[in-house]
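User: I'm curious what two different proteins look like when written out as structure tokens. Can you demonstrate?

Assistant: Sure. I'll show them one after the other, since each token string lines up with its own sequence. Here's the first protein:
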Amino acid sequence: MLVDRSHFSWASWCIGATFVALILYWIYAQTEPNGPSGGSWQGMLYGVAGTGCMVYAGLLAWRKTIPKTQLGTAKAWLRGHIWIGLLSVPLILCHCGFRWGGLLEKCLMVTFALVILSGIYGLIAQQLLPRLMTSTSPAQAIAAQLNVACERLRRSTEIAVQAECASEFLEPLSSKSKKRKLTEVATTVSTTHSLQDGVVPQEEPEQAAFSPKLELATFYWDQLDTFLRSDANDSHDLANPTLAKARFGRLRDSVTADLLKVVDNMQAACDERRQLLFQAKIHWWLHGWLNIHIPLSVTLLVLGLYHIITAIYY
């Protein structure tokens, strides 16, 4: 969610409530002979208010499961999740008297801090990363459809190359298969037979005349096809723009003028795949933090409930 003018009233209310809470805490701390304590009625009041804020923030997950409800819009709940969640920080600190406490309290405070920090990271990421993705990756796809977009790009490029190369298109694959079979045969013979004299005869691959179309097809199958697939990652050579530019430059020098257009299309497909790869990375940074924030939030609520129970009985 973008923080815009619609958040002004929420932010003002949160800042005002924080200011009042800290002023009342200062008065309470000055008038308490034994210092502030979470067990006093003032400390309990802060604890109840802070816990209420955390519970409200946690109810956002429940609100998302009910898209049609009269309990406010999803945007209003998101704004409340952000600002009321932040308001819980000063309230909880006032409750504990700005002290760590025992082991349970330490675990509770550490979990609470991680929840708040991960939430702040998510809020900042939502402000910056979409703009970065828009400015650096013109070729975008829906996050759930990235694999489909990659496969569509690979297939269209393959059809274009096949249309230009005709019979030479499948020759690199047959050559690979032939070399693989020769290697398997040589390995099998060398491991199952012990020859006293001589060597295992191996078939030498035929030396074919240079063919620009075959060069184009070989480049596609050896390098571009693997990069256009949905499982490609940053470790691929063509993921490096400088290295990719150099290899496409060498490819242009080795083909005839009538094939330059398809080379340009191949390089454009490579650039688009690189953008989709960057987009997938941005999506991970944009949404991956939820894998930390949500489990920690559940842990915080469980520890908070256990803390309440132990405080009542002990």
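Here's a second, unrelated protein for contrast:
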Amino acid sequence: MIPIIVGAIMGGSALYGLVKGGKAVVDHRDASSTNDNARSLISRATRLVNEQREATNSVIEDYGSRKLRSFNGPVADFINTFGRLKNVEVANSPELEKLQVGDFTTQTLTELQKEYQLLMDSGLGLGAGLGSGAALAFGAYSGTMMFATASTGTAISALSGAAATNATLAWLGGGSLAAGGGGMALGGAVLGGIVAGPALAIFGHIVGNSAEAALANANSNLQQARTHYEEGERAALQLQSIQVVTRLANETFSKVTTQLRRSVHSLEKVIVAHGEDFSAFSQESREAVFRSVKYAQLVKAMIDTPILDESGALVLSTEKRIRDISDTAI
């Protein structure tokens, strides 16, 4: 009787061992599959943010390059042509009264001339190139932020370094940050205070004798990966918002500078036909002067409108201001 009982116990133990062993195999397999899913989420999040980062970076750089071309083109032409006039009085102009984005003063022209001169002195004059870091800063910052730096003695041509002082710009451009990188986590943190999940380097081989622990760890990894992906989506949306506003700024700036170019061409014709003494101009000729001043004012307003603030966040009032300028440039 006893051998039978012992045999039954031994058989039960063997069966229990088999069940436990089978469950361990299943748990290990499930843990591996769960970790694969987590890795996939991390990969997708990284790809999502990087693709949007590159797209946003490209649009801001293009806008910065357009700003530079405007200084070397229509802005320079306006400053030179308008500077030829004598006895100029632009107060009470119907054209200037239409402006809704800021009152025109003689100080506006003085500032524009100063900014132009700073740009020329920096080595970014006619025919000069603009490095990617400088273009990025030139597109993201306002003229006040840019030229304040230049007026302290820092050459605008060195803005590739200045851009790196703003973590968002450095990250957008793909450059390393102060800590030698940081990737999506630091970039996400810069964009609106998102604190991305850890790098999740724990997704290595499943180690340990406890299959249950391995499965629990894998489930934890997956939850972290989901959080990481959600943060990546938010970062990508913020990048997309920056891209949309920058594209609007680029289109508006193009429209305004085209109008400035045309008005300066008309002003040149007036000077050829009637000379340089504004006080002797007919009302029609004076209107040509007023129009050129109006569009120079709008270009200056665009230059003074930043896309990002000093912390790297999108300036929320910028979109409305750009739309106001666009509506005025008719």
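A detail about the second structure: The longest helix spans residues 2-82.
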